[in-house]
Amino acid sequence: MQLDDRIIPVSQLDDNELAQQLSALGVGLTTYEARRIVELIGRDPTLCELHIFNVEWSEHCSYKSSKSTLAEFLPTEAPNVILGPQEDAGIVFLTEYEGRRWGIVVAHESHNHPSQVLPNEGAATGIGGIVRDVDCMGADVIATADPLRFGDPTGDNAERTRWVVRGVVEGIWQYGNALGVPNLAGDIYFSASFDDNCLVNVVALGIVPEDGIIHSAVPQEAAREPYDLILIGKPTDDSGFGGSAFASKILSDEEEGEDRGSVQVPDPFLKNVLLMKKANKAVRERARELGLKIGFKDIGGGGLACGSSEICAAGGFGAEIELDKVHVGLPGLLPETIMCAETQERYILAVPRRFTDEVLRIYNEDWDLPNIYEGACARVIGRVTPDKIYRVTWQGKIVCEAPVDAVTSGIRYEREEQPRAWSEAEPQFAMPADLGEALVKVLGHPNICSRAYIYREYDTEVQGNAVIRPGEAGAGLCAPLEGSTVGVALAVDGNPFYGLIDPYWGGATAVAEAMRNVAAIGATPVALTDCLNFGNPENPQAFWEFRQGVRGLADAARNIGLKDYPGQPCPIISGNVSFYNESARGHAVAPSPIIACVGTMADYSKAVTMQFKQAGAALYMVGPRKDELGGSAYYQALGVGLGANVPKVDWELERGMIFGIIDAIDAGCVSACTDISDGGLLVAVCEMMLGGFGSGKLGAELVLADNAGLRPDKLLFSESSGFVIE
Questions:
Q1: Per the domain annotation, does 445 fall within a domain?
Q2: Residue range(s) defining the domain that contains residue 663
Q3: What is the mean pLDDT of each run of 10 residues along the chain (726 residues)?
Q4: Annotated active-site positions, please?
Q5: C-beta separation of 132 from 306 below 8 A
Q6: pTM metric for this prediction
Q7: Does 205 reside within a domain?
Q8: Is 18 among the domain residues?
Q9: Domain count across the chain
Q10: Burial tier of 411 (Cβ tally within 10 Å: 0-12, 13-18, 19+)
Q11: Does the residue 280 lie in any domain?
């Protein structure tokens, strides 16, 4: 079979000519990267190969600017880790129940660029992608969360910001509610920093018995018997073509119409049939009954090219893909489109050939995919090969033939970093004469006011496992294992104003607050994930911000640690890096490391919410107040600037507060609890008075004898970490 004649003459062009050619083809590779492809495959690439390398080597897929930093700093191992950040999701130990060890599966991703361009579709497909990441590990999906960052709703771009907010929230509820997964956690910040680039992060949780874990790699058994590659789901079209490359570039107003074609199109109803204890689970259970090893991977960023090459490379194998066998939804699709489009609701499955017919029957007949969505099905599109060559054919020609490791390993950059200073000082102003009026201003600020207008759109009751819902506490809690008292908690955090002032403490405080929110309901933090949202890594100051943020969150994870395991970190088991959150005008987002914390409770009936329970009960403040109002809601509500003194985590104190609160709740000493963070002590107490839905009927009387030398307003609105307990 001959090589495709659409060859791009990389080796014959000078740098200017090559750059023009790459741009004309819509390829984001640099001239250096294009020439590196020639070195790796030993010839000029075909057009299809160029597009495959373009998505695989994009920042979104290859982590070419961040991988070395993550390896340098992040603590990923601990005694409770079943699977660290090696695959689509991490797994941490949950409990032993009825003779089986169970794990919590957690994944954390971003869908920022698509959500800025097409908010509804971008956010919906973010949810779709994250639940696939959990499902393909063999887990039952039990919850999602949505940390969101939007522009200033009252600023110069208010109309567009509000359009983005509406679209994102609609996309999340439309997809999540139809899919049947409860949304149990989230947080929202508004800032002009996000006018040009919203941040839509998504988290998904699942549970899986340890003996039921499926890996996104071709099993080693493929060296001893033939394995087929089966494509499952929607027919491939041109939606999302170049989506990963699009997510790895700076947004431009001029290219917005073109960028919309890079956004995928969701279908939660088809996903429901595939995922929610239905078709995919039927295949997994049948494979287990037969004692067969299978590999299972979702097809998301990079499309079929990434999914099929990575599942094979992870097992040490190659692949032969026949694009003529791929079910498509549009006529005349070119091979590079079939390979790199990011059509939603698809998976790639590697199974023993003797199991293939049964797999096809389960999907196509038992679960009737062709009648759920026109053109949907499961179909054999290729086979696993032992030679570690990734070979793709189309219409009698080879359109790709390259070492699979060259395709998937990408390249690495050691970016330059340059520290930058924060220019603002602490504001000097007279204390307001009426602190009650100041409190009302803070409570009415967009970053403090009730979030019910968001989370009331989401279905929290589907699956019937919710114990604590959004608004009732800083973390959600569910009881996902039928017949067991074990609870799973989830919280997300990350204050962008802290990151703007000091990226290191922005990362550290995100970890501390996420862990506090889990502890405040009585759950023990057992694992973390991170979604690292930053600007252009080619900008030395932006890359410095990134490294400082990662260092901060890593130090917090190590120094606060894992309860009951002295010296062990709270492990970071999954995550994502999102760079190029910057507009063509040069406006980058505030450094935004967003943390998700997963916690567990042996008995979920001991959990507490933040709302006051009984008049006359004693209130205690845990944690000293400090002059740490940099980035605070108080400064912003008064319009005096951001200041400079951000909260700084005292490792020993933080660890003692978090672990002490967990023990106190477990002992039954606490009836209500919340952490002190945004808005300070007064806002924390007001949240406890009001409750999640504004139904509270109790007030509070505070006696603050020790002001630590602070002015009363700073004492009351300081955002130093701590708790209030009833």
A1: no
A2: 608-726
A3: 93 96 93 96 96 92 93 98 94 96 97 91 92 95 97 93 96 92 96 96 97 96 98 92 52 50 66 87 96 95 94 97 97 95 94 98 96 95 97 97 94 94 96 97 96 93 96 97 97 98 98 98 98 96 98 98 97 96 87 98 98 97 96 98 98 98 98 98 97 90 83 96 98
A4: 60, 111
A5: no
A6: 0.94
A7: no
A8: yes
A9: 2
A10: middle
A11: no
